[in-house]
Write a structure and sequence with these properties.
Distance between the termini: 85 Å
Structural class: alpha+beta
Oligomer: single chain
Helix content: 25-40%
Strand content: 15-25%
Number of strands: 23
CATH class of the largest domain: Alpha Beta
Length: 511
């Protein structure tokens, strides 16, 4: 595979922490992380507060920001409706965790080395498009995304190949059957199917799903107990996505790699594996400059990255781990990187405590509470139209959403409204906060957080988010006489759908 030896050596030397190892290694999180004011860890609270102020004024979908310096949490912000204790889907960060499991499995002898040919793990499979290039494809090529398969299953292809894989009865067979686009080791091509194949190989070799293997050999040793890992069955774990974690547990994984795979005196992931995973193994040139073993690598840092803004940045020189979660649209994907460079990195002043700054810390705490939704907004007077449309049914023309009718209920002086509707044959209802605070409702098996406000005498805006998911939309209800325009704006894809309804006539009262 195309490794650049000189670049890799320089990267390793540059990324050697400049703080004293005894200071860095003195703090290890147990069940809970130790917390600290930023100044006690050589950071400037004012810079961090300025970052949060930006999120107060303009946040396209960041759900949390967690900063760990010298082993202590100096910032841990949740942005409503995402709350402390919630897990978040981490999407492709799953790949980096899978890589750690492969390193552990090789060290334990559960997996052979990286030069093992992929097809050796699948005896008896009849493989399409079989040629010498496919025969020479190795586990190492899968880890560095240089397998050479024509997968076309990433965002660059609008997930086309991923949909085909998910629709196939045997995902491993589907990936193995793909045609070759290049010789293994010659071309970086990010592929979800390739990571899925790694998970299948791990399960075949160990007899355990990735989730079960992680519980015993990775999550358990570093104190991660609250997680989810989706699979096609209870005994299976996906490899390209599917993991959900709390942000502080995402930080544990970053901190483990910051410390070379060691956790409080125990070598959980082999140090050489951590080093090779986070060195530039191949030029990527997409979401980061380089790629390691399912880790992205850029200059003086390495990172896990997942769809929608799930990122774990590890900066060894600054002894810093930074975690973002969110529901970011594609055009805002690099916002966490911008916040990291413009606020978080610039807040690192020294490797020793700074003078206390109580005013800046108080400002930081106030912004954390504001973003967390701890303050209710004053209830705004509703327009007369709220009384007119309350309890009235609006019937929709036939539409692709299957939305048949809806009814809103407003109660004078109440901080909540109710929205009842029918989609297809299913009836549902949600509660909407009118005081700036989200209310949680279960809707077809998914929790949705909802809040809304009247923006003028005819228009009501409803915000909806699924906490811990990359699901975020706004709905504009515009009432004109007896008609309703119902505009749904998907804040992730930026797509807009508009549906039209008419107020149903009130049946005559019975005699």
């Amino acid at each position: 595979m195309p490794i650049r030896p000189l670049t890799a050596l320089l990267f390793f030397l540059l990324c050697t922490p400049k703080i004293s190892h005894s200071l860095a290694a003195s703090t290890w999180p147990a069940a809970e992380w130790p917390y600290s004011e930023p100044e006690a860890q050589g950071m400037n609270s004012t810079e961090l507060a300025s970052m949060l102020e930006r999120l107060v004024s303009d946040n396209p979908g960041i759900h949390s920001v967690t900063v760990v310096r010298l082993g202590a949490v100096v910032l841990d912000t949740r942005i409503t409706p995402f709350a402390h204790g919630d897990r978040h889907d981490v999407h492709s960060c799953t790949k980096s965790v899978l890589s750690a499991l492969v390193g552990i499995a090789i060290d334990r002898g559960d997996l052979p080395d990286l030069d093992t040919r992929v097809l050796d793990f699948f005896p008896g499979y009849e493989i399409a498009h079989l040629d010498e290039r496919k025969r020479t494809m190795t586990l190492g090529h899968l880890l560095t995304m240089t397998a050479g398969l024509k997968a076309e299953d990433s965002y660059l292809y609008d997930w086309s190949g991923l949909g085909k894989m998910r629709a196939s009865p045997d995902w491993a067979q589907y990936v193995l059957n793909l045609p070759m686009e290049a010789g293994p080791g010659t071309l970086f091509e990010y592929s979800n199917g390739v990571s899925q194949l790694i998970a299948t190989i791990l399960q075949k070799a160990t007899g355990q799903s990735a989730a079960a293997y992680a519980r015993e050999h990775l999550f358990g040793p570093i104190g991660i107990v609250d997680y989810g890992w989706q699979g096609s069955s209870p005994d299976d774990s996906w490899g390209y996505t599917g993991l959900s974690l709390r942000p502080l547990d995402m930080a544990r994984l970053g901190y483990l790699y910051l410390r070379g795979g060691e956790w409080d005196g125990v070598q959980v992931v082999p140090a050489e594996w951590v080093r090779n995973s986070t060195l530039p193994q191949v030029t990527a040139g997409t979401l980061a400059q380089d790629y390691g073993y399912q880790w992205w690598v850029d200059d003086d840092m390495f990172m896990m990255q997942g769809y929608g803004g799930q990122i774990v940045f590890v900066l060894p020189v600054q002894d810093l781990v930074v975690v973002f979660t969110g529901a970011l649209p594609e055009h805002s994907f690099f916002l966490p990187r911008s916040l990291l460079s413009h606020f978080i990195e610039t807040s690192v002043i020294a490797d020793r405590p700074l003078p206390a700054n109580p005013a800046a810390v108080a400002r930081l705490d106030s912004l954390i509470k504001l973003l967390g939704g701890e303050f209710r907004e004053p209830l705004r007077p509703a327009p007369e139209l709220a009384r007119v449309v309350s309890g009235r049914i609006f019937e929709f023309a036939e539409n692709k959403m299957g939305l048949r009718h809806l009814m809103m209920e407003f109660t004078t002086g109440s901080s909540e409204a109710e929205l009842e509707f029918v989609v297809g044959a299913a009836a549902a209802s949600i509660t909407i906060g009118l005081d700036g605070v989200f209310r949680i409702s279960e809707l077809f098996g998914q929790n949705w957080a909802c809040r809304g406000r009247w923006v003028n005498d005819e228009t009501f805006i409803l915000e909806q988010e699924a906490p811990g998911k990359v699901l975020r939309r706004s709905i504009t209800l515009n009432f004109q006489g007896d008609t309703l325009s119902f505009e749904v704006h998907d804040r992730i894809t930026d797509s807009v759908d508009v549906y039209h309804a008419k107020m149903a006539e009130i049946p005559p009262a019975a005699n």
